[in-house]
Amino acid sequence: MSTDTKLITWEVFTQKKQGAAHEHAGSVKATDPKMALLNARDVYGRRNEAINMWVVPAFAITASTPEDVGPFFDPANDKLYRNPNFYKLSNTYKPVAD
Amino acid sequence: MEATVTADMLEREKAFNDRIARGEVIEPKDWMPERYRKQLIRMMSQHAHSEIVGMLPEGNWITRAPSLSRKASLLAKVQDEAGHGLYIYSATETLGVDRLELTQQFLDGNAKYSSIFNYPTLSWADIGAIGWLVDGAAIVNQTALAKCSYGPYSRAMLRICKEENFHHKQGYQILSIMMQGTAEQKEMAQDAVNRFWWPSLMMFGPSDANSPNSEELMRWKVKLHSNDDLRQRFIDRTVPQGEAIGLTFPDDKLKYSETTRSYEWGQINWDEFKAVVSGNGPCNKQRMQARKTAEENGQWVRAAAEAYAAKHYN
Fold first, then answer.
1. What is the ipTM of this complex?
2. pTM assigned to the model
């Protein structure tokens, strides 16, 4: 068995129907993008789970780390005025659309 | 060198155990005890190897399926098993181990896989028995694992369970139709169930008292039910289905108890289980050889893919 195989990991994202966002489905191994796409189709699309797929080399993805969870997302936590609930109004206020 | 347990490590482990207790899902980059990681790698890679080896007994009947429609179903089922192997290998890799390393462990004979696949498939009815009993047992196991504490494993199980339902139904349908057939066909179906019943019950693993890993795995919510509980659940769901189509089970102690609303049953032959797990089942050598041959025969394909990638994408 060749342990020197240059198969790399590709993350697979599938779009379930038109207009929907792509979602992470899993990963496949492949040596090139075309093979990655064919493998992704066979592994994650055998039952019409997708109408479109992206494959991305796993090494190209940069992710935040779980340890970051506090400080990294802090800017969101201390700015409550970004949410409509921050604004207290009398009940004469009605949203302009439902 | 002796590992020193620092206060920091103890604190992290406590925080981890608290997360588990709260029912939180652990993701690949989260801190986890080394032992949790190791146990998951062991369990998940065994599971992935089982899916791959599981293609062999069924693949045996693809060319001899009794009709084109049966052949198409069986091909699709075997392809699903390959896919399941890939889902689980890819989930295992999130724990920081490479798939090639896992494959190598398997080819070197240093990894286990489910003992059920070391039994031969002697007649077409065996394909029915495998779908109904073996996949049935796998569904019971995997439905429980779908709620396990490790995110990637749980997500792989959800996907697999959806697909296994087709396997289970196609198996039961094969046996149902044979049980409406000639005396000879009925006999074939019954013979397949006689041979696969006990090995299917063994799929749930050793009895709780003799399962060295169970306590720890349950504490970490990798396993949510004991081997014996899942085995009982499988028996309770399966026996009435078999009786409904006129099948019997090779266990003279099998009896429904009105008090427990559950089946009482006989004894698993644990000596047979141990023999098959340790390499002495009817087909262990054949399965390993088939896997090695496939690996060798695929060598030129991998080499060609690499050469192609080097030429066009570097």
1. 0.81
2. 0.90
